[in-house]
């Protein structure tokens, strides 16, 4: 188990130091900002949505390694996904961070399961869920406009 925890930590540190999809695109259809006052993490998401598909999504922001890693890994899992898929992924990740989910649901989360260790630190859970709450707010905006 400790090897697995080390692997998790390495992945979080890697994505925390050099988050993927960390740029403001020239074109985007929707955006949303999130802020975690407990830690000072900031995330600004930019999405290009066409029909019911999030074609591209990236971010600008700064914060602790956990918030940056969580944003980076969330965005890796969010490219070219339907709105419904993203809503489901949000729900599963949220449930996972707040309690337990089935093995089947964990398979849906894939790499996102590395945030398992963060669950032991309630203040850091807010860092890990910040990008997800921001994504959920963005998805709600898309729903309203359609
Ligand atoms: Zn943080």
Describe the protein's architecture and organization.
- This protein has 146 residues and is α+β, with helices and mostly antiparallel strands.
- It contains 5 helices and 4 strands; from the N terminus they run H-E-E-E-H-E-H-H-H.
- The chain has helices spanning 2-17, 65-76, 83-98, 103-109, 122-145; strands at 30-36, 41-50, 53-62, 81-82.
- A 4-stranded antiparallel β-sheet has the order 1-2-3-4.
- Helix 1 packs across helix 2 (65-76) and helix 2 packs across helix 5.
- The longest helix has 24 residues, at 122-145.
- It is globular.
- Bound molecules: zinc ion.
In short:
The protein has 146 residues and is an alpha+beta fold.
List the helices and strands and how they pair.
Blueprint: H1 2-17, E1 30-36, E2 41-50, E3 53-62, H2 65-76, E4 81-82, H3 83-98, H4 103-109, H5 122-145
Helix pairs in contact: 1-2, 2-5, 3-4, 3-5
The protein binds zinc ion.
